[in-house]
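Before a colleague's protein record goes any further, I have to sign it off. What it holds is a sequence and that sequence's fold in token form. Would you go through it and say whether the fold makes sense for this chain? The record follows directly below this note.
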Amino acid sequence: MKISDFRGIFRTSELEVESVENPYGDYYTVKIRIPKGYSWIPGEHGIFKLPGKNIQGKKWRAFSVASNPKEGFMLIGTRTGREISSFKSALTGMKKGEKISVRGPFGWFKVMDNKTPIVMIAGGVGITPIRAVAKSLEMEKSRPVHIIYSSKDYYLFGDDFDEMATNNASFHVSKYGSSSETKAAVDKITSQFENGAFYYISGSQAFISSISDQLKSSGVSKKRIINDPFLGY
């Protein structure tokens, strides 16, 4: 983590919602229009507010951006849970053209260099920043990119990852529905790369802690592990 990782925190922008989609159950995606020249580094997150909305309780949420700026839009993904908060109720009910305030994006969950193999491990909606990083690498064939995606009910952006793997033989996507399968896959990839890869983990704090401990117990250096905690998903 470097001071430069927080440079974007000083930028606040008021953008417009393009669409809100509900692909499955309580999963939602929000596509946001961006002006020409607006950019961020794939993997970063922002602080989101809903100006003009009567929000009860916490007035903001941190969401990882799920898109690469080259796609021409900002994308976030979330789950509402069984008891939907006032903020998420307002967010998922937004209409095209309504305003959304974004502070940032900023953060440290980003590509470290242009040659080291990359292993990205996601738990549930923690897949959001991994989609952004993967989209930035989808045409790169100079190093392997492995994505281990663990989810019990639905694979958000699953089709996007399948398409990337189909179009690029350097991309490898594996999906698992249980913690035991996920841990076995992590052990296998760790034995392959050891400290020769960067390992990105995104999901709940419990998921991150579990996978991080597993990597370190296998001899992976802390410097090789990059985390994105589950803050506002």
